[in-house]
Amino acid sequence: MKKRIKGADALMEALINEGVDTVFGYPGGSIIPVYDSLKNYSDKLRHVLVRHEQGATHAAEGYARVSGKVGVCFVTSGPGATNAITGIGDAMIDSTPIVVVMGQVGASLLGTDAFQEIDVVGITQPITKWAYQIRRPEDIAWAVARAFYIARSGRPGPVVLDFAKNAQVSEVDYEPSVCDFIRSYLPKPIVQDVYVQQAADLINAAKKPFALVGQGVVLGNAEKELMTFLEKADIPAGWTLLGESVMPTDFRLNKGMLGMHGNIGPNMKTNECDVLIAIGMRFDDRVTGNLNTYAKQAKVIHIDIDASELDKNVLTTVPLLGDVKEVLPKLTEKVAAANHSEWINSFAEYEQREFNEVISKELMPQSGNLKMGEVVAAVSEAVNHDAVLVTDVGQNQMMAARYFKFRQSRSVVTSGGLGTMGFGLPAAIGAKIACPNRTVCFFTGDGGIQMTIQELGTIMQEQTGVKIILMNNNWLGMVRQWQELFYESNYSQTKMVNPDFSLLAKAYGIASREVSERGELKSAIEDMLKTDDPYLLIVNVEPEGMVYPMTPAGHTITDIMTGEKK
Amino acid sequence: MEKKLYTVTIFSENTVGLLNQVTIVFTRRQLNIETLSVSPSALKGIHKFTITSYASKEVIDKVVKQIDKRVDIIKAYYNTDDELVSQEIALYKVATDKLLALGSIEALIRNYAIRVLELTETCVVFEKTGTYEETQRLFDELSQTIGVLQFIRSGRVAITKSKVERLSDMLASIEKKQIVEE
Fold first, then answer.
1. Whole-model pTM?
2. A254-304 pLDDT, tens per residue?
3. Which listed CATH number (3.30.70.260, 3.40.50.2000, 3.40.710.10, 3.40.50.2300) goes with B4-79?
4. For labeling, which of A288, A330, A389, A420 is most exposed (least CB within 10 Å)?
């Protein structure tokens, strides 16, 4: 049924038609008509006013990661659009479905260097699945439907809609549109049974199979299918940063984190296994280290929905193109029930070594300053290992990933591929809004939080109950760590002089507490969790903490430093 | 890795900004585009790109997959010269008096299979189609003998020798699958 409405109203109708109920944004000249329309739809669309457009994109990402829905942003043209670029790039490399609606100058002004005009389609084409300029109101319904279909289908990712002002204000006979097919775009490749059989044959003949679990399993909603597969064939598995909460931490076959700061076991076993099964992951260099020495002894099965990932970094023996949700049950059916207990038990030796050389010191120090690891572990314990973890980037991120524990999927929100400092605070806001009934614990450092600290204003305005755990060491800790290890302790520009964070919290009306003593930590965490209100817990941690184990960049993945003096 | 000349063929929707989407993939891999030709294909609304570039097999394979992945790209693939029949077209402008002074125009035209497109008192325009090497050979000869006033060469156009699945069949099967899935 057609109705005559303004373009801006048509946008609202089209968004609601796609199931949108929350938008993160920031108004400006070229998108005022859209903001004007919000009032007509306030019962259906909640708008969260951020403090900077980057925050809108990260909040939308956090929202999307936790909810599985498409995150939506409104930003204005020009600087509003360019401020959103970091979040769009982050969403691209981490396969996060978001739709960013950007205001644009009127069509008659396009190409004239008009006020706040920027070629945003040109800028964002390399970092979006699709970028489209809406110049006529007649295109709105079609473009919005197509945007959501593209963002959420196949390997998800960001879409930009560049919305010219004339199309926002002029009227159109609006009619809802549906998009579930684009002839040039096949989001779900057809699974080739011959490869499924080849993969099953390899797995059935394997003595030491090892699986690598990535975010593809989350995006494909295939957590159950994964665990059924692993259990039947009795295959131990490691996970990438974004694949962390796919399996519960205490799942028998969960052998921990892969990569640069991952667990010793899964990294060593990568180069010992006979069949390596990569499931919805992309062999990032932070996972593989030096590719020339990576899993050379193993036959590699790679399951991924994106054909361009197969053979990109690691040559596969069996390329298994397809949606994990479809591939895994087919594979499970064909693999024989197996028992690899000897192989699985052989991880224990490495686990013991890591406990002795790294974990015991990080989690159970008897004296000295608080350590990041023990802070993370204490918070995880206090939330019964069932909160949503949001991190910033750097040492706080690696420590949180290493020591936070999980019981359910979609519980990790972190910037993996782009490594975006400043991601965490707005992403935590988005995550909490997506799941108000869960506790959201955001771990950050003094560097990362200050990159987007203005979003404390969003928390204040929305009363978003994010629990912020600021592990303050007054350093850009991860860069400092690299400088100590690889740049002869030349601490170039990594020492931070910081504000009084508790006064900042006070200014924003956010409860806070600062602790430096081990004895106070537990009660401070209890304080933080007493209510569902926002809270800033400032923990002054040891200034020169190190994240171990560590495989230096570009080294063989088994070339692991533990900080232990040789 | 040894680099050789690959011909990349791309079928796409005819949407604004598509060329940019294609070229940025080459840019990321630091690949130069040697020739580029874009035109409507035999199927209405679908455009065909023919791009040549020197690359290793490993890299061109990844580039083509990353192009193929773009939403508005229908199909992308690559071939080596031995799998293709390809042609380029070149135009040469030379001075009429110098050409006449050469005295052996018939042989030139026969040897190079030249077409004369324009003839005035001051200049003559030749057209030659052929491979890059063939059009280059004529350019070299003319340059050395009478000089070339202007020269232009098109990008390569190419057709595969093998009997490959035709795009229209592929599209039909895509559309059919859609109906079955529904």
1. 0.96
2. 999 999 999 999 999 999 999 999 999 999 999 999 999 999 999 999 999
3. 3.30.70.260
4. A330
